[in-house]
Amino acid sequence: MSNEYAFRKIDIDALDEDALLPSDLVDPDPRGPDGALSDARARSTETRNLVSKGDIAGALTTILTDPPYGDGVDEAKNLTTSAVLLILNSTRANDIPNVIKGLDQEQQAHLMAYLYKNMSALGSGADIPGSVLLTWHEKLTEAAGVGCIVRVMTDRRTL
Amino acid sequence: MSAPEVFQLSLGPLTGVAFGPDRTQLAVSPNNNAAQIYSRGAQEWDLQTTLTEHDKLITAISWAPNTNRIVTCSQDRNAYVWTQLPTGEWKPALVLLRINRAATCVKWSPNEDKFAVGSGARAIAVCSFDEENNWWVSKHIKKPLRSTVLSIDWHPNNVLLAAGTTDAKAFVFSAFIKGIDAKPEPTVWGDRLPFNTICGEFKAPNGGWVHDVAFTPSGNILGFVSHDSAVNLVYPAGPGLPPQALITVRTPTLPYLSLSFTSEESLIAAGHDCQPTVFAVGQNGWEFSHSLDDPASSGSRGLTPTATGTRSVSGPGRLNNEAFNLFRQADTRGQTKPALAATSGAAAGMTPVGADGLLLTVHQNSITDVEPYEWSQTGEVAKVYTVGKDGRLVIWNVTGKPAGGLPGRMAGLQV
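^ inputs. structure came back:
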């Protein structure tokens, strides 16, 4: 690249005293890192119990209510993500549409977010079944529409 | 409902659109630095004049219905007020905007004695005429804006101004200018209103850009559409109080880019799903009512566009056309014939696509603006117009509420 365009590499935000940072755009999880972690522990334990009893719908509702988000809560996020993955794996394909119907819009958006999160981890060595994720994604999009995907893409409160 | 009127004004997107006072004239910018003025012919719109003063893309146009003045704003950081000479020519007057980024939106106030310009410079310039110097001067609303202002709308009292920004917020400000505005009557938004008073700040639920803001005809409710596919309504409780209610309708469709209230209890939103949809107060509060452009009920494109240009089929720049589909089918499935319509079994909120790969909706690309076109005698909006990135202008009937299931729809049928 010639010098003519070198100015494009200048970080103009560094010269701006009032630059808008990504952290300004999103409020942190109100529970704080510790609160989010203990909450996530409790929920993931309860979820595992419900799954072993065969109550998939209840387990999914529990884990998708107030999931941890934002920075500094990685452990809580990992716990929740693996609990969601457990539910996804233990659901029979025929039951998926009914389970999805039982979720409210907020929970559907959270579920979509976890589907994408798990998809992004595909091939990283973790044991994630891609076909199961795709089945869930298909059923969820049928029910919640493309608007649900747009909300997940837009939301800066990353799960 | 009678069929909408469709006009192909340009091959590319229409970036700014405004109708003249009696709806026989139309100012549009075809995605460049010129504004074209058309007048209504028998079947189509005829180009009258072209206003060329801007250096860069015109982002918005507003036409004052009573004083017959046009204001254009552009990415060149300028705005011009155009007045018509007795000879019919339009004469520009520069506005001192004093902004260092592109102007994004402009709107005349209801009394037409001032206008507001939103910009990428984290500021709204409220402009009024300075008799002494014979030019337009501006006052800036800066705090607490921290990002580009995408849309503005005036409250009917000529003082309050709503704005939507890219940091997912909608604001209500006072744009009171001493010497022009009389002291306004107290409203639900506030009673003391010096310039730059913040009367409200609202956040989009999932943090999407706020694409458009609008007041209801009374000005007592604020609506905004955001990029998280939501339509939001704010009911203020009074000065300094948190709002009575902040209602969010999450839709299964792609996000809306524009909204317009047709009454206190209904609005029309349009955007990336290419069809204007009506939201209204139903039994459960605000909810989706119906689409003005229902491809399912109108059959396979019974709405034939009247093209003013040479092309009548589709706008350019779309990947989803017949040729593209043909090659895609050949590539992925070895088929040499176009695939059949894939309308059934599609996900909720998807815009239906016909057998030829064209959308079954009238607009073939995102709708960028929806505004009232005609009012009924009772003061409700009877017709709206939409413009889109497909270069089409469409005028829709909104009267009559066909949402009541089949009987309502059947009433519109002609046998």
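The first helix of chain A runs from residue 32 to 53. Chain A has one domain: 19-154.
thumbs up if we can close this ticket
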